[in-house]
Design goal:
By secondary structure, the protein is of the alpha/beta class. The chain is built from 6 helices and 7 strands. The strands form 2 sheets. It has a 5-stranded parallel beta sheet with strand order 2-1-3-4-5, sandwiched between helices. A two-stranded antiparallel sheet has the order 6-7. Helix 3 runs parallel beside helix 4. The chain starts with 10 loop residues before the first strand and ends in an 11-residue tail after the last helix. The mean pLDDT is 87.
Length: 184
Amino acid sequence: STGTRFRTGMNSILIVDDDDRGRLTLEALLAGEGRQLRAVADGPAALASAAESPPDLVLLDVMMPEMDGFEVCRRLRADARLREVPVVMVTTLDDRESRLRGIEAGADDFISKPFDSAELRLRVKSILRLNRYRRLVGERERFEKLFQLSAEGIFIVDGGGVVKLANPAIERLLGFDAETHMVG
């Protein structure tokens, strides 16, 4: 389903494998649990799909014709919009040199073929959880920066009337000095 955009609010996984059985197996194992899956058969399609709608995770086969997984990973890392997307290389290559080459290309993890279904599901779940946490931390940092820099006076009060958060603009408007703060 190459033309489908990922919907917001769902964990999105891009599966890249030139082998039909490999793609179908990964889709079957990962379906459900609030995940939206998109599968493509080659590197150029993976790059186009990721650029169209950045996924939360890329499961990337290494051994593909035309453009191997190492090159796909390098190109994902070179794209400012995609460089933070976790990439797990799914590979039959189990030697140290291949793993080092994958890490150098920017891979976050490896799963060896044939893979253990339970291990695959748990690794994917863990990576998606860490990715969600990273996004939440980033959103909180952006909110705090906007809150502090806003020219508008803003404060947040709990149900008991206690000020939980106040920005510098509201403190200036209400005449609080540098040593006295509204919070609490």
